[in-house]
Design brief:
Strand content: over 45%
Number of strands: 11
Order of helices and strands: EEEEEEEEEEE
Low-confidence stretches: none
Distance between the termini: 37 Å
Helix content: under 10%
Structural class: mainly beta
Mean pLDDT: 96
Largest sheet: 7 strands, mixed
Radius of gyration: 13 Å
Number of helices: 0
Length: 122
Amino acid sequence: VQLQASGGGSVQAGGSLRLSCTGSGRTFSRYAMGWFRQAPGKERHLVASITWNGDSTRYADSVKDRFTISRDNARNTVYLQMNSLKPEDTAVYYCAAPYEYYSDLNVEYIYWGQGTQVTVSS
């Protein structure tokens, strides 16, 4: 599956952004999806994930109650709504998919989109 992330930009602290990740092909709806981020000089880590049917989601503690992951399988798209943004949310954000179809959220992600930059100023 090929993934294309978009929606990044520059906002002030307290603002909002919505990231989108669109996948190619007819199998997109079979994959769990994850959003990762990587800040300068830091490792990439998972911030949110969602099962193939949207029934289950998971969030990193640092973004709980501020970020919401969702998906529209008819549009082959997964979203990351980011509210109450903080300067520490500044990073390149990536979407990713695992190898398996219909997996739970305990998976290794192997398909990656290109990153989209999010910059939050104080």
